[in-house]
């Protein structure tokens, strides 16, 4: 098979994989939401269809560089991905996962803050914040500009930081699950995680919910490190009592204001960001 055709095939295959992964994981957590909190997404059908459309477009943007690099790794030895566990000490296996997550979180924090500058918020990031409230389908609902900033991170890291293929699978799994659960409108994790000592440093839905309500602060992805260091950590948000009881509430509330306040003009909000 000609090289160019093989690379194109690999890119399309990865697009399909990323898209299918999004549909399966978001679909599974959306189903869990229907079981745990019936009616939580009531009246959000149009928004959810929009979220799925933007997310599938993002899947194509994420899949292209991943597919090209996957071909290069398999056929040309590109990247620092290794398959032999003995190639690095076993203690490095979990360390590499943390290094990737921390590097990704760092990139996300600063690009996310950049996206909250008025010009770029209105041009790109407003697409993501149009989900009011966000749902399990909103994890990849990005404008192409924002999707591109996220799509290049892992493909770049695999050239810089050695990682076992199994550890990379863990990183991608954490990335997918946290992206979905942080937007689903309720806490899937036990209270001791998000309200305890671990929650002081690890981000879950309660932390990210406040970002989507107030449009500022809480910019991190996995960890609260950069938010705390830079003074942008606004603490945990909460959800409406109706949503917590699963009595059909579809609007979420966070400390500092209700989600429907986000229906104000995005341009005016953008001028207050950062």
Secondary structure layout:
Elements: H1 3-36, H2 45-76, E1 81-82, H3 92-115, H4 118-129, H5 144-151, H6 153-160, E2 163-164, H7 165-181, H8 191-194, H9 205-214, H10 225-230, H11 241-245, E3 253-254, E4 257-258, H12 266-270
Parallel strand pairs: 1-2
Antiparallel strand pairs: 3-4
Helix pairs in contact: 1-2, 1-7, 2-5, 3-7
Question: How does this structure look, described?
Answer:
There is one protein chain. This protein has 274 residues and is mostly helical. 60% of the residues lie in helices and 3% in strands. It contains twelve helices and four strands; from the N terminus they run ααβααααβαααααββα. It has helices spanning 3-36, 45-76, 92-115, 118-129, 144-151, 153-160, 165-181, 191-194, 205-214, 225-230, 241-245, 266-270, and strands at residues 81-82, 163-164, 253-254, 257-258. It has a two-stranded parallel sheet with strand order 1-2. β3 and β4 (257-258) form a beta hairpin. The longest helix is centred in the N-terminal third of the chain and has 34 residues, at 3-36. The radius of gyration is 19 Å and the shape is globular. The model is unreliable at 241-274 (pLDDT under 50).
Strand order of the largest sheet: 1-2
Uncertain spans: 241-274
Oligomer: single chain
Q: Approximately what portion of the residues adopt beta-strand conformation?
A: under 5%
Gross morphology: globular
Compute the separation of the termini in Å.
50 Å
Q: Helical segment tally?
A: 12
């Amino acid at each position: 098979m000609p090289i160019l055709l093989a690379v194109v095939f690999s890119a399309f295959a990865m697009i399909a994989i990323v898209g299918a992964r999004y549909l399966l994981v978001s679909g599974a957590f959306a189903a869990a939401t229907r079981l745990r909190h019936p009616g939580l997404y009531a009246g959000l059908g149009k928004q959810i269809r929009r979220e799925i459309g933007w997310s599938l477009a993002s899947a194509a943007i994420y899949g292209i560089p991943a597919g090209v690099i996957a071909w290069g790794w398999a056929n040309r030895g590109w990247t620092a991905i290794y398959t032999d566990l003995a190639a690095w000490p076993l203690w490095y296996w979990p360390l590499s996962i943390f290094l990737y997550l921390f590097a990704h979180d760092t990139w996300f924090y600063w690009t996310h803050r950049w996206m909250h500058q008025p010009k770029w918020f209105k041009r790109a990031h407003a697409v993501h914040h149009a989900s009011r409230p966000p749902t399990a389908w909103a994890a990849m609902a990005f404008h192409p500009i924002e999707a591109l900033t996220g799509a290049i991170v892992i493909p770049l890291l695999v050239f810089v930081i050695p990682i076992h293929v199994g550890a990379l699978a863990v990183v991608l799994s954490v990335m997918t699950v946290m992206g979905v659960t942080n937007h689903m409108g309720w806490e899937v994790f036990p209270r001791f995680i998000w309200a305890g000592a671990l929650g002081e440093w690890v981000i879950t839905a309660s932390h990210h919910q406040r970002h989507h309500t107030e449009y500022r602060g809480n910019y991190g992805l996995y960890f609260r490190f950069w938010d705390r260091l830079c003074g942008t950590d606004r603490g945990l948000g909460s959800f409406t009592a109706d949503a917590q009881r699963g009595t059909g509430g579809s609007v979420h509330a966070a400390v500092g204001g209700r989600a429907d306040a986000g229906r104000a003009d995005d341009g005016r909000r953008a001028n207050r960001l950062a």
